[in-house]
Amino acid sequence: MQLSATRAIITGGVSGLGLAVAKHLVARGGKVALFDVNDDKGAAAVDALGAGNARYFRTDVTDEAGVVANVNAAKDFLAGLNVAINCAGILGAGRVLGKDGPMPLKNFAGTVMVNLVGSFNVAKAAAALMQHNDPGTDGERGVIVNTASVAAYEGQIGQAAYSASKGGVVAMTLPMARELARFGIRVMTVAPGIFWTPMVDGMPDSVQQSLAASIPFPSRLGKPEEFADLVAYILGNTYLNGETIRLDGATRLAPK
């Protein structure tokens, strides 16, 4: 897929990894619909990207009807839809047995709803429209890129909910790719390591330095632009399908 032909929905698109992807695509001639729940950042992102290139849609990714409505509205704005990139997510940290007792089920379920169910919700709504696109190279009609985490593989203490949700994203990648193959829709997942995000920016310098030192090479946090580069490569390489790619500087998370 040519990036200039990209007509993309990006969840979590007004900050962090999602905004980096949006900037990368728009800079290369693409158009983006930003799905998020932060109106102020949404307005700022559209101002930065240009109103002709981007539009913000307030979207709760766990709301099935709302997602369908916004995906349809996004297609109208974009004059087409061939890419969906799921970057929306929450950390959902908490121990199974914490100081105040067992983790409330609503906390676990809430994390899974946003990170896993939300990704599925957007992917299926986008695929329902992509299946009707005219086929391009190799018969491709669309691409879905989900975001997991290295915590899907070696979750830390306090990450039971988060790791479960991201592990689910990894697990659904191949079966979804196999199912959507007959429509010419590819499905890929990126599992980032420790990246510079708004959450990390708020941490003390000592914590940031400790995180960077834990990464074998290069010993620094990942840059959102590097995540965006990988997503762009995935969009351009038609033979990438049904796989999760770790982007982590060879880091492996310690138990805590």
Considering the chains and any ligands shown, give keywords for the structure.
two-stranded antiparallel sheet; 256 residues; 9 helices; alpha/beta
Please explain how this structure is put together:
It is a single chain. The chain is α/β, with parallel strands linked by helices. The chain has 9 helices and 9 strands. Strands 3-2-1-4-7-8-9 form a 7-stranded parallel beta sheet, sandwiched between helices. Strands 5-6 form a two-stranded antiparallel sheet. α2 links the parallel β2 and β3. The longest helix is centred in the middle third of the chain and has 26 residues. The mean pLDDT is 96.
Short description:
The chain is of the alpha/beta class and 256 residues long. It has nine helices and nine strands.
Q: Return the average pLDDT rounded to an integer.
A: 96
Radius of gyration: 18 Å
Question: Helix segment count?
Answer: 9
Indicate the low-confidence ranges by residue numbers. none
Q: What is the CA-CA span between the terminal residues?
A: 41 Å
How large a portion of the residues is in β-strands, by DSSP E?
Answer: 15-25%
How would you write the strand order of the largest sheet?
3-2-1-4-7-8-9
Class per helix and strand makeup: alpha/beta
**Quaternary structure annotation:** single chain
Query: What global shape is seen?
Result: globular
State the share of residues found in helices, binned by percent: 40-55%
Please outline the major beta sheet.
7 strands, parallel
Q: Element order, helices and strands?
A: EHEHEHEEEHEHHEHHHE
Number of strand elements: 9
